[in-house]
Amino acid sequence: MTVELDRAERERSLERATRRLSQRYDIPGFRRGRAPRVIVERFVGRAGLMAEAAEEMVQLHFRAALKQEAIEPVAQPSIHEVQIESEPYHFVVDIPVPPTVELGDYRSIRLTVTPDVIDDETFERHLASIRERHVVLRQPEAERAAQPGDQVQVELETFVDGKAVDQRDGDTPVPGTTLVLEPERLAPGLCDGIVGLTPGQAALINAQMPPDYHDASVAGRAVTFAVKLLEVKERILPEWDELPALEKFDGDPAGYRDSVRTDLERRARQRAERTAIDAFVEQLVACSTVDVPDVLVRREAERAVARDEQQYARYGVKPEHVYEMQGRTRESVIDAALPDAERTLTTNLVMQQLIDAEGLYADAAAIERELGVLMQSQPPEQWQMLSANLGEQVYRIAASQALDRRLSQWVFASATEGAYVPLSAETPTGAEAAPEAEAPTGAEAAPEADGAQNATSASRTE
Known about the structure:
There is one protein chain. The chain is α+β, with helices and mostly antiparallel strands. It has 13 helices and eleven strands. Strand 6 and strand 7 form a beta hairpin. The longest helix is centred in the middle third of the chain and has 35 residues, at 253-287. It is elongated and about 110 Å long.
């Protein structure tokens, strides 16, 4: 903004500047405050007199201009091009103002929600992984050869064309490796080659690795495993009908299996909903226009860096030591965080604008329901402690979850034209307070910078 100054005001400012300077300095031949302008100008220099007058003029007219134009700065303005030597008298001020957001045609965005199918193979594999959590290791009563299903400790090296894949110094011993002797867990041929060895025995095992093997350094190649068996332990797995009790499930084995399948299907829906929500947010941001002042982007980057520094402090690490080891400065770290900060601000501002446009606010009843969900997710004693120590914060969390639920339901109703009903539309349960419970909507981290509203503030209720 360019602010123009008139001649009369300039003269009055110069006179006031003259009086202030003559009172500030002892000017030979004059009492303080009595020296005329020409003398004061000779004593402090014309640049000094002009600078004194300009500072007053800028402050007076800058504030008046902001009030006249009804401008609310979101950060400290910067003033430059102050011209009071010759006409036209003026100065230029750069004013950071709240971001502007213009939503695109978000109602035309369409989503397809396709949860993964939980087939019998997936289900049985998941049940087996649960059973594995309760495995018991036992030393064999007498030394024996390794058998399928055992857990063994080995020294293992892999060679390709006679050269070790993992290079080490000649004096460095081969590190111990723990393996479970099941073919599907190990590289081709390795399980069969170890079965039958006794502790202390060594063997060379030749194998051909498949082209799609996860380790690109040996994929599709002929390899030799050099193995020395150190220790054998039996793995004792619980019986299938023991799982309900081990997993603290109140019911029979059939009911437990149904519960596990239901949980898997729910998690598959959660993943599909998160993917769909992310796609909606990405399309919404792409079709919207957002103008974020650089000063707000930098402030968001500074906050992100400060959060990282708090994590360092929790471990007793000084941030400056981290930056020194990385060969960076704090300013360079902030500069590197600017792109992510801009994306975060842009996304949050767009989502907040959508919330405002659709009137998607959490009412008191919805917040109370979410407080009930949080309460059910905690043991009674812990809930009482949380409520006592973090009362307002707990309420804000509940308000955020209530808003997130409403926003999620709106997105699916709009983007699937009602064809898909999300999990968030179902009756809340204590299980939903778990980390995987809700599909994130992007509104959870709305910017708290000046000029931007927080989408999950508990004060934003009907």
